[in-house]
Design goal:
Length: 297
């Protein structure tokens, strides 16, 4: 099978892990920088060029699209799938998952529980809208933030108002969420591949910090999710149209709350923590799905 991994850097852990998984299973794998791809679009003919060479004879692609290149990355995926190439992430699913606001709206609408969230667009109504979330402590989060950057725990409505006004002044969109105290600075990440949760870890914030991201100095350990947590993670991934997803979830008193769904989850933390070959699980999925795609053509 000819597999293309869309990635800016072949040396990145996740990309390298996928390369090794493909090669171990006897596939030909090539890494292509999606930002270096060019597109030719005409009636019934959508072509992709990489350094002026056509990218043909591809059975499947595995997109590793960063947040800074979401829109163009989605266009590249769309060009491949239009040519009947299987992708672990479809363009519409990438766009839906990457937009935090749209993702929360969609999941909540489909009866998936999420932290209570408020979006304030009218600066005159900040104080009144903050009252929709109980408690003095609240989470203010940039909609474009990653790895825990742009996530702030406020101690009062006045504190939250100052932060929101500062973000609005520099034209940064933010959302405000309830602070789930009982989660105690931890969350769980479940990796969904196809219709199964293949690996789960708990991330715990370091002392004095509420953000559990490993990039913020948090620690991690393997956990076994409950059946409800598994079910919610799989449902969220399927609703968004993702064949591979990293689902971040809080354990709250009222049950699992989805924080976000990552369309290009990193593999280093989860593989290192659990010892599970997640890249190999993804490759097994690619084999099944690409074969099914071929039979449909």
């Amino acid at each position: 099978m000819n597999i293309v991994i869309l990635s800016r850097n072949a040396a990145l852990y996740s990309t390298d892990s996928l390369i090794r998984a493909a090669q171990n299973r006897g596939h030909h794998v090539r890494v292509i920088d999606h930002l270096m791809c060019d597109l030719v679009i005409e009636q019934n003919k959508l072509q992709i060029y990489y350094y002026n060479e056509p990218v043909d004879d591809v059975d499947a692609i595995i997109p590793r699209i960063g947040s800074s290149s979401t829109t163009y990355g989605a266009a590249i995926i769309r060009q491949f799938t239009a040519n009947k190439v299987y992708s672990t992430v479809r363009s519409d699913a990438l766009l839906k998952a990457r937009d935090k606001l749209s993702c929360l709206q969609y999941l909540a609408q489909k009866n998936i529980d999420v932290p209570k969230t408020v979006i304030i667009n009218n600066q005159l109504m900040i104080d009144e809208m903050l009252d929709h979330i109980e408690g003095e402590q609240k989470i203010v989060k940039l909609t474009s933030g990653t790895h825990g950057l742009g996530v702030i725990l406020t101690e009062s409505n006045q504190n939250a108002e100052s932060i929101i006004e500062a973000f609005q002044k520099v034209r940064q969109k933010s959302l405000i969420q309830e602070f789930v105290k009982e989660s105690d600075g931890s969350d769980i990440r479940l990796i969904v591949v196809g219709d199964k949760v293949v690996a789960t870890m708990c991330r715990q914030a370091k002392e004095g910090e509420f953000r559990s991201n490993l990039h913020r100095g948090g620690s991690s350990f393997a956990v076994t999710p409950t059946e409800n947590e598994r079910s919610v993670a799989i449902k969220a991934s399927q609703l968004l149209g993702l064949d591979v997803a990293g689902v971040d979830m809080l354990r709250s008193a009222r049950g699992p709350l989805i924080l976000e769904v990552n369309a290009s989850p990193g593999l280093e933390g989860i593989e290192g923590t659990t010892g599970i070959d997640v890249a190999g699980k993804i490759m097994q999925l690619v084999e099944r799905k690409a074969d099914a795609n071929w039979r449909k053509v």
